[in-house]
Amino acid sequence: MAKLRLLKTGHGDLCLAEWDKDRPETITDAAAAFAEHFTPGRLAFRLDGPGQTRPIRAFDATAPEILLVPAIQGG
User: Fold this and answer.
1) SS3 sequence, the chain?
2) Partner of 59 at 20 to 30 A CA spacing, among 10, 25, 32, 53?
3) What is the model's pTM?
């Protein structure tokens, strides 16, 4: 099962959805969760393994894992 996770600043992460590319109903739910939580100020990354991370701007059902993170803020 692939996972959609949300990184929570200072609090670890939260699994928002899991999907199986062979079960379309799970993809629909995961895509909806991505759309709901990929808000302005957040970044999304497809995690394919160690050293194989790339930014994405839309839900990708072929990804083994997607991580949503808050944008880095400086001061």
Assistant:
1) CEEEEEEECCCEEEEEEEECCCCHHHHHHHHHHHHHHCCCCEEEEEECCCCCEEEECCCCCCCCEEEEEECCCCC
2) 10
3) 0.90
Q: How far apart are the C-alpha atoms of 63 and 22, rounded to whole Å?
A: 13
pLDDT for position 45: 97
Phi, psi for 52 (deg, rounded to 5): -125, 65
Q: What is the C-alpha separation between 23 and 9, in angstroms, rounded? A: 32
Distance CA 20, CA 10 (A): 29
- With cut-offs at 50, 70 and 90, classify the pLDDT of residue 75: low
Q: Residue 63 pLDDT > 70, yes or no?
A: yes
